[in-house]
Amino acid sequence: MVHSQFLNFCGGFLFGDKAVDEVGVMCRQLGYVKGSAMIVCDSITWEIAGKRISDSLRASGFETVEKNMVEKGAVREEVDKARGRIKSSKAAIVFGVGGGVNIDVAKASAFIEGAKWITVPTIFAADAMTGINATFRGEEKGVDGKAHQGDYDFRVGPPLACVVDNEIVRSAPWRFQAAGFADYVAKACAIEDWKLAYAQKMTDHYSEYGVALANSHISYLIENAARIRKMETGPFEAFLKALMNDGFLTQMSGDSRILFGSEHVIGQALMEGESRMKSLHGEQVAIGTIIMSRLQGLDWKVLKGSLEEIGAPTTARAIGFDSETLVMAIARGPEINRAWMHDRPDFYTILTHKDFTEQQVRKIAKETGVIE
């Protein structure tokens, strides 16, 4: 029996050069012609895109455009602050401008307060700009009111729209785009873990269509990594659109397992290590992808080769770790995986299926060239 499922996607995309200057026109087309809006950003992204969005909204008829600056990262305090400003300004639309943190704060605060939200990524360091979840750091009392030991997701649904200004993204430091590429091709490991969980009857759902769709994107990105790195128009736009499409992919798959697996568990272990302030999420996941793809029996050399072509880190040293510290961090993977299963009992991966000792980590890390 196939149970009915309501699928709700991102309402629209504004994509192209100088797209942020057309936000006001887009909002009119969406039926928002006046009232109040709020921009969630930081000091850098305000100058890059926020001010131009504010000017466009005011020119199109919005009476008030509030600015909410994110200062402490993806934590409940920032969501509470943004919620307060949404209430006081009666904002009907909230814009998340910048990277994943600003977008997630905008998503969660708007969702809780009943406002619509529009995402405006200025970098492509992750693949979550149209995702149905917002990700936050573990706290004693999270956005959902519960205690979380590590990073957790808060389900919000899709955005009203996503705005991608190609000129802004092209001008961002390449490191961010390389991290986003790594975060996307990591789905190769996530798919293997999901397939394993389904085979072991740890989950009752597996989407062949979602997997086929993700695999087609992964294959294209891997085959065209060098051209994407050169920012050739066709491949670079395909790369941006693949990452923009993650919300659709998640909804069609019916499960966020399509997005992350054991490679993200390793990324979490590395984030909790000494490199947390030295490397990006996608860079940590790049290392996790190399190690886990080898453990899973995938063609890790092809994955690693694409990461090297795109300019993502592939060694411990490149993300600020010495060899032994990295080995000890990765060896915590099974422990972290089990902790995540408290929130998601179906999050069964290769790390809970096989023993993964410090000795095994060291052997695989050396074989793959992650450590010397």
Would you give an account of this structure?
This protein is of the alpha/beta class and 372 residues long. The strands form 2 sheets. It has a 6-stranded parallel beta sheet with strand order 1-8-5-4-2-3, sandwiched between helices. The model has no long low-confidence stretch (mean pLDDT 94). Helix content is 52%, strand content 12%.
In short, what is this structure?
The chain has 372 residues and is of the alpha/beta class.
Q: Could you give the topology of this structure?
A:
Layout: E1 13-16, H1 23-29, E2 35-41, H2 43-60, E3 62-69, H3 76-89, E4 93-98, H4 100-113, E5 116-121, E6 133-136, E7 152-155, E8 161-165, H5 166-171, H6 174-185, H7 187-199, H8 208-223, H9 225-229, H10 233-244, H11 246-253, H12 262-271, H13 281-296, H14 300-310, H15 323-330, H16 333-343, H17 350-353, H18 358-367
Parallel strand pairs: 1-8, 2-3, 2-4, 4-5, 5-8
Antiparallel strand pairs: 6-7
Helix pairs in contact: 1-2, 3-4, 6-13, 7-13, 8-11, 12-13, 12-16, 13-14, 15-18
